[in-house]
Automatic annotation (TrEMBL):
Protein name listed in UniProt: Upf0585 protein c16orf13-like protein
CDD domains assigned: AdoMet_MTases (cd02440)
Coiled coil ranges: none
InterPro entries noted in UniProt: DUF938, SAM-dependent_MTases_sf
Lineage: superkingdom: Eukaryota
A Pfam family it matches: DUF938
SUPFAM superfamilies the record matches: S-adenosyl-L-methionine-dependent methyltransferases (SSF53335)
Family label: Belongs to the UPF0585 family.
Length: 204
């Protein structure tokens, strides 16, 4: 069972914003790129009537997610799916994950540490799986109309690109275009600790 320090620090601030977008009624949330599993296993107990579907493409992450689920004895979190978000939904969907099945698609700290194709796949997935009025909820560092602040984020972006030229902090303007192509529209952007943002898109 893996523990990431950043996830421990940001899981409650994210939950404070996320709470505003999860329906009070019974709902279904798909998390793309669940990583260690700390986020979804922190959120799920707060919404016992919501079913949570974690996922990741990495086998070690899938084991960590399952270990967190078992450690907390969570009955409303499904076993993690192995998902490569750059692949068509039909290649990884489950009986629970079908077009129009999701009230919310959650994605934390993925699009800047993956190729652009992952962001494209994320928005395509959200556009297909979300119910009308459902939300794509993203968290991470973002540029805003070409502007990246503060200097620590600029340095972080340079570090990411030095590790992999396909990585880098994404511009909200570019994500907004992906949203429009997939019948989504940005509804809100919330400043968060450590120079991150929660960015929320709504399915039309």
């Amino acid at each position: 069972m893996s523990i990431a320090g950043a996830a421990e620090r940001n899981k409650q601030p994210i939950l404070d914003v996320l709470t505003k977008y999860i329906p009070l009624k019974s709902s279904f949330v798909l998390e793309i790129a669940s990583g260690t599993g700390q986020h979804i296993c922190h959120f799920a107990p707060k919404f016992p009537d919501t079913r949570w579907q974690p996922s990741d493409m990495d086998s070690a992450s899938l084991k960590s997610i399952q270990a967190h689920i078992e450690n907390k004895d969570l009955k409303n979190v499904l076993p993690p799916l192995q998902v490569d978000i750059t692949k068509p939904i039909a290649q990884w969907a489950s009986p629970d994950v079908t077009p129009g099945s999701c009230d919310l698609v959650l994605n934390v700290n993925m699009v800047h540490i993956s190729p652009w194709e992952a962001a494209v796949g994320l928005f395509k997935t959200a556009g297909t799986l979300l119910k009308p009025g459902g939300y794509l909820f993203m968290y991470g560092p973002f540029k805003v109309n070409g502007i990246l602040v503060p200097d620590s984020n600029v340095q972080f972006d340079q570090h990411l690109r030095s590790r992999d030229s396909r990585w880098g902090i994404r511009d909200i303007a570019d994500l907004d275009k992906l949203a429009e192509e997939n019948n989504l529209k940005r509804e809100n952007m919330v400043d968060m600790p450590a120079n991150n943002k929660c960015t929320i898109y709504k399915k039309n």
